[in-house]
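Run folding on both entries below.
>entry_1
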Amino acid sequence: MPVSGTRGTLKRVVFIAAAAAVGGFLFGYDSAVINGAVTGIQKRFAVGNVEIGATVSSALLGSALGAWFAGSLADRLGRLPVMRIAAGLFAISSIGSGLAFAIYDLAAWRVLGGIAIGMASVIGPAYIAEVAPAAYRGRLGSFQQLAIVLGIAVSQLVNYVLAEVAGGDVRGVLAGLEAWRWMLIACVVPAGVYLTLALLIPESPRFLIAARRLDEARTVLARVEGETVDLDRRVADIESVLRSELRPRLSDLRGHRLGLAPIVWAGIVLSMFQQFVGINVIFYYSSALWQSVGISQSGSLLISFSSSVINIVGTLIAIALVDRIGRRPLLITGSIGMALSLATASWAFSSAVKVGATVTLPGDRGAIALVAANLFVLFFALSWGVVVWVLLGEMFPNRVRAAALSVAAAAQWLANWLVTVTFPSLSAWNLPVTYLIYAFFAALSAVFVVRCIRETKGRALEEMG
């Protein structure tokens, strides 16, 4: 079904959704930039696996906190003010992280940046779902994940260039600072872009109606749905839904099953499965992982960049299919593909041979491990990477959307933290078993989707419940 209005209307909606999704770019950039900096941080501050795991994952605790209160803050202040606050916090954190004088100082700045990312991770999908016409909501909602993977790719490329300019060493000095510090400081650029765009796009029409700013809501609806739409009727439809329900609060999420409504639990578990498959191990630690099996720093950064390109390809596939074949088929396909590729990677790494301080993969096992890792990234990107964010933006009823999305996103960040903080120690203990654990969760996620997730393709937000 076409969007009401002209091609210009669709272009405006695409721009608005893309601008809101830049918060996802911040997440992707921060996720992957630390991948390139891990080796430099570990050597500069002389820390082990436990300390580096805690430092890398510290941002995720901040993200859980930011996601937790972002929904209620957005319902009080509006969607755009929360975006602007997040952009400012992330810019400050980027500079502080790059100039950190100790490992605990770096961790503190990463927590602050994590709060900003957590806020952006909640407000982006909610805002896009609220401004996007139903026929295009899946593809526009996919912009969040596309922005994440673009952020990953750009940061990997920046990391590689900085390391090369510094002589192939992330501890090489550039303009008085080690290269890994410039990697972290460079995050201030996307933060500035996010802030600028958040000053240009309109407020969510559903928030405006809830705040009784009806004339502004009509203006925004005309921009995103076209001049030919019956604006009074659209406002009345949204207003009737909002008026019949209480203002969103965390207490509204309560239900008879373990204290929360079933739809809220579905969002929480969906979010946790997205992380328990171990995807962010690739983005946080792949450089160090490939170095551990004999690949140089520059080579490992280049491999990480190639994986991020595959991530983009998979995301574009998902964007093309999410509104055509639906959310559930993509999730199930991705779960099966991830389980098989992770099991293959586990098998390849099980043959690693250590001679002195050098670890190698014999014969063709190295190539198999690399292909399996990239297939895992591809299957994740074309399914769980995109679809989870789309579902979180649209699966909850209007009454509790912001609050429920906050809880689900906070659960996702906590799951991400658990995987990230444990991987260095788990991989040092037994890397093949670690990958088998992730493969188990990938297989289990398919069962969860079949049993617990409803299809939302083509349904209006007011029909969710």
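>entry_2
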Amino acid sequence: MSAVSPRIIELVEYVPVFLAQSEIPDAVGETLWRNYEKQVAVNFPSPKTGYRWRLTARGWVGHIPLTPDFHLALRPKVQLGNLLGMLEYAYDLKSFRFLEGLFDCQSLSDFYERLAEILAGRILNRGRQGFYCAYLPKTEDLPYVRGRINVRQVISKPWDVKVQCDYEEHTADVEENQILAWTVWCIARSGLCTERVLPTVRRAYHLLQGLVTLQPKSPQVCVGRQYNRLNEDYRLLHALCRFFLEQSGPSFEMGERSMLPFLVDMARLYERFVAEWLKAHRETVLLPQGLDIKSQERLYVGEGKEIYFDIDLVLQDVATGVAKYVLDTKYKVPTAPASSDIAQVVAYAEAKGCQEAILVYPMPLVEPLDIRVGRIRIRSLTFSLAGDLEQAGYRFLQDVLYTDTLGKNVP
């Protein structure tokens, strides 16, 4: 790392920023274009741009270290407090009270560092208590007998002084701990932790390094895990790991100086936030209406499994399982819904045999939608990210459940 603080260029979602041609080296601009075109639209200096760079964040927020000396900070268009509230729901962190003190963070990078400090500190605490261990089956040629002897191997090679044994080893080198090791390794390489927190992260990694094998882990391994009385505290650790692993992109430079970007896909986060908010209020709001919720339902079309839909959200009758509403979240604010989005949600409704299809936006549209296509009613509704998220959620549900075809509230 350079002794000089890196230059940081800030971009806000969907707001273009123009920079003089001399402000970005050509090699850095090319790296950004080649590796992060999905996150940032890059227009090179040309007559069309007035011989300036034109950079536009495409609905992602976070931090991209292009070189040790040149970084991009992608800022959210929503209030930071509400972004953190979305992350709480999306990663099932709301029940952990330590997050209450994090809402005074001044930036997403600050939140990342503070959360990294919490994870590293809890790993160190678990290390002092002893990391979770399990018995794993192993087969090994040994100079002594351990466990069960492979009799066939002994008979076939009577001259071999080593005996093949099948046994179980009590070890901490299990996936529960490998997830922690890989996560803190990624955090240490992010370049987002200051010298106040980085030593704690490194201590947590070095503590695990002597016990587990460093293996790449995907965020999916943190989901749906089974816990028992010996490792129940790993539930929180893995929830935090999932957050970091889903936001850590690939490093495009190899070597000790490479750094990992930290990127949040706001469209995906919005989709997950809406789903998790509904699940969190299922008993108090949905069940009294006789409804249950399913998220990311995969529905195969035709005889084979080559064609399928992944439906964002389905509200279904608790008793019969019949779909009452299909919802598709759209993290964008057009003037009116796009024809392709309408066709998509209609296809979802047809596939589920449902008569209510809803497009969900983070802000009210200038031209809201309430039409019928055959027997299917299609509406555009708002789960707002401005103001209080809880109140916005209740208003959204009221619009979903209690609005008739004329747009009037049903008493």
